[in-house]
Design brief:
- This protein is an alpha+beta fold.
- The chain has one domain: Orthogonal Bundle (Arc Repressor Mutant, subunit A).
- The protein has 3 helices and 9 strands.
- The chain has a 4-stranded mixed beta sheet with strand order 6-5-4-9. A 3-stranded antiparallel beta sheet has the order 1-2-3.
- A hairpin with a 2-residue loop joins strand 2 and strand 3.
- The longest helix is centred in the last third of the chain and has 15 residues.
- It is globular and about 45 Å long.
């Protein structure tokens, strides 16, 4: 089951399967522009907000996941898994750990991190408060 559905407090939303259930996001607007997610980067954590018609859903990232997302926000053209491993773990051989964390982020929040190269989805607007 997927597609767009009316949701009280959110308006029309698209459904995406994530770990433990479904993620509802505001559906694409009629003019063809995808609803924008907002990523706020703080000193030690990040918040991803999905604004809706009547409510906003907010998800907090901390630790390594926040570091990965913040690094990707600083490098919008994208980076390799090896570059990300060096930046976040201090070791270029921590590629498997980086890939696992990115998988966990995408499982929890929907596909916010694209691959080849790793980068944030174009639907995300970054607000840097560091």
């Amino acid at each position: 089951m997927s597609g767009s559905f009316p949701v009280d407090g959110l308006g029309v939303a698209g459904a995406e399967r994530v770990a433990g259930g479904w993620l509802l996001r505001p559906a694409a607007r009629s003019e063809g522009v995808q609803a924008q997610l907002e990523l706020t980067i703080g000193a030690h954590r990040c918040w991803l907000a999905a604004p809706g018609a009547k409510a906003t859903s907010i998800h907090e990232l901390t630790g390594r996941r926040a570091s990965i997302v913040a690094w990707l926000a600083d490098h919008p053209a994208g980076v390799s898994a090896r570059e990300l491993a060096e930046a976040v773990y201090g070791r270029p051989d921590a590629v498997t750990a980086v890939r696992a964390e990115i998988c966990r982020v995408n499982s929890a929040l929907g596909t916010v991190v694209q691959s080849r190269p790793y980068r944030l989805s174009e639907s995300i607007r970054v607000i840097d408060e560091r």
